[in-house]
């Protein structure tokens, strides 16, 4: 895996986590612990994609 690909993965994880935390905050949730768990839950999706052999972009089956 190249450095550029790793940075792209990290950005993907952070975007998903930030979007979830922002959505929770905009819905009225202000508890930092809850917002943190929303972030962690959202990052789980892209993290699982990285482990997937059939994911072409970032998965274990990625060609680059």
Give a written overview of the molecule:
The protein is an all-alpha fold. It contains two helices and no strands. It has helices spanning 3-26, 32-51. Helix 1 (3-26) packs antiparallel against helix 2. The longest helix is centred in the first third of the chain and has 24 residues, at 3-26. The N and C termini lie close together (6 Å).
Q: What is the topological layout?
A:
Elements: H1 3-26, H2 32-51
Helix pairs in contact: 1-2
Task: Compute the CA-based radius of gyration.
Answer: 14 Å
Helix content: 55-70%
Q: List the helices and strands in order.
A: HH
Proportion of residues in extended strands: under 5%
Q: Determine the mean pLDDT.
A: 84
Described by strand count, sense and barrel closure, the largest sheet is:
none
Q: Which regions are unreliable across 5 or more consecutive residues at pLDDT < 50?
A: none
Q: What would you call the shape?
A: elongated
Distance between the termini: 6 Å
| DSSP helical segment count | 2
Total DSSP E strands = 0
SS class: mainly alpha
Summary of the model, kept short:
This protein is mainly alpha-helical. Helices cover 69% and strands 0% of the residues. It starts with a helix and ends in a 13-residue tail after the last helix.
Entry keywords:
64 residues; mainly alpha; 69% helix
């Amino acid at each position: 895996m190249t450095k550029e690909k790793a940075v792209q993965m990290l950005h993907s994880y952070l975007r998903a986590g930030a979007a979830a935390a922002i959505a929770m905050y905009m819905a009225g949730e202000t508890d930092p612990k809850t917002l943190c768990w929303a972030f962690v839950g959202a990052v789980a999706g892209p993290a699982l994609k990285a482990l997937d052999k059939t994911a072409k972009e970032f998965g274990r089956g990625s060609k680059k």
